């Protein structure tokens, strides 16, 4: 099996199709099985060998698919013989441990371009497509430039998970902070309420300015934004 792995590895590095690599590995596995498991041998040994071979095939298939996967944010410059990559995408891939899908990169690029032009855009994605774990941190890296405030509004039930996803990418290597904005209703006397709210508004403004200057991201829930807007 190791011999077949060594033979198949150069093909994977040259981005040859995964099916060809799987065919070579499958042929090697069949050869090994025919040599090791002869007719009349212990059935339990044959069963264990077959199970081990299947696991090797699956692991090798995953390895080759990753080696031959395309990096969609990379661009080969033939004249300079260099590879140009998007550093924001590269940081997310490094932290998440997998390559960005083509759809994820295209959506993130489109959203970032629209936001830079001051235009609104809405995208719909299915569950488990990488909205919280991939796109949100990636857009936070792309858009935070000390000139505008990047704010993520997440459902209240998903806010802790979304905050952890942001923190895991932004704070792990780049040390960018993730701020949480909370605003609740207060039952106070009018004068005390005015004083308390004024102090809180000043604190919120200071936090927002700090987040913008430090290329950080602010995350909040819809109810907090609505409460703040109703009171002010």
UniProtKB/TrEMBL annotation:
Domain DUF3638: 89-231
Family annotation (InterPro entries): DUF3638 (IPR022099)
Protein name per Swiss-Prot or TrEMBL: DUF3638 domain-containing protein
């Amino acid at each position: 099996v190791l011999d077949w792995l060594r033979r198949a590895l150069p093909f994977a590095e040259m981005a040859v199709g995964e099916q060809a690599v799987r065919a070579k590995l499958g042929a090697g596995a069949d050869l090994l099985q025919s040599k090791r498991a002869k007719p009349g041998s212990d059935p339990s040994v044959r069963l264990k060998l077959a199970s081990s071979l299947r696991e090797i095939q699956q692991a090798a298939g995953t390895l080759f698919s990753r080696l031959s996967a395309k990096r969609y944010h990379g661009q080969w410059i033939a004249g300079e013989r260099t590879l140009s990559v998007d550093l924001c995408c590269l940081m997310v891939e490094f932290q998440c441990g997998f390559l960005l899908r083509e759809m994820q990169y295209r959506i993130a690029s489109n959203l970032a371009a629209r936001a830079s032009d001051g235009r609104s855009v809405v995208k719909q994605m299915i569950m488990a497509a990488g909205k919280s774990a991939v796109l949100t941190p990636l857009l936070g890296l792309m858009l935070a430039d000390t000139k505008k405030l990047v704010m993520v509004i997440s459902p209240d039930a998903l806010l802790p998970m979304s905050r952890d996803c942001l923190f895991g990418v932004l704070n792990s290597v780049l040390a960018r902070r993730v701020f949480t904005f909370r605003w609740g209703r207060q039952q106070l006397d009018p004068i005390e309420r005015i004083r308390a709210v004024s102090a809180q508004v000043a604190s919120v403004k200071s936090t927002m300015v700090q987040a913008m200057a430090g290329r950080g991201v602010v995350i909040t829930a819809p109810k907090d934004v609505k409460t703040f807007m109703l009171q002010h």
